TrEMBL record:
Lineage: Bacteria, Bacillati, Bacillota, Clostridia, Lachnospirales
Keywords: Transcription
Native organism: Sellimonas intestinalis
Domain NusG-like N-terminal positions: 15-110
Matching SUPFAM superfamilies: N-utilization substance G protein NusG, N-terminal domain
Protein name: NusG-like N-terminal domain-containing protein
Gene3D superfamilies in the record: NusG, N-terminal domain
Origin: domain of life: Bacteria
UniProt keyword annotation of Transcription present: yes
Length: 190
């Protein structure tokens, strides 16, 4: 099954963003799954990314939340979802334009996020993960080749720290210009 088979198709559902307390993303997704019927909240998830830390001369791969404090929900009924969310503890807010209209994740933003995400199963749960991109650099440290997901966004790179194994891309998301840190690995590196 392709990763995109798991993600929503346009026209079926829309993605919305819930802001919550940083560090409580998984707790909120669990609460949403247990409290809300699937007819109102088809899926709720947060996005993780692989990171690379150097520990005692070796690279250690870990996962951390890509957008701290943000949980994504898929629904066709945002107004009903909004009223149901009032019953959910520790909820901050469903992103809106400030005038009671709930703002879906724009189609181009959703496509961007879908292009980054790999959906895996771990301990019976779906994990939405941005994996490290494989890259090749020249003698000056310029990226001359990149694998997915970075390959589509080389033109958006605003900063790179190859030695620390990351690049930063800039993209408009959720109504603001945001920077997104993506981890990289050199071609042939584990």
């Amino acid at each position: 099954m392709s990763n995109l088979d798991i993600l929503p198709r346009r026209g079926e559902v829309m993605w919305y963003v819930i802001q919550t307390t940083t560090g409580r993303e998984e707790e909120l997704t669990d609460v949403l799954k247990s409290m809300l019927p699937q007819t109102i909240c088809e899926k709720s998830f947060f996005i993780r990314r692989e990171t690379c830390w150097r520990l005692k001369g070796k690279h250690k791969i870990q996962q951390e939340v890509l957008f701290p404090g943000y949980v994504f929900v898929q629904t066709q009924a945002p107004e009903t979802l909004f009223y149901q969310l009032k019953k959910v503890p520790k909820l901050s807010k469903l992103l809106s334009d400030g005038e009671e209209e709930f703002l879906p994740v724009r189609e181009d933003e959703q496509e961007f996020l879908e292009s980054l995400i790999t959906v895996e199963e771990k301990d019976g749960k779906e994990v939405y993960l941005v994996k490290r991109s494989e890259i090749q650099v020249d003698e000056e440290g310029n990226i001359v080749w990149a694998g997915t997901p970075l390959s589509r966004y080389i033109g958006n790179v605003v900063r790179k720290r190859i030695r620390k194994r990351y690049v930063v891309i800039e993209k408009e998301l959720f109504g603001k210009k945001r920077t997104v840190l993506l981890s990289v690995r050199l071609k042939g590196e584990e």
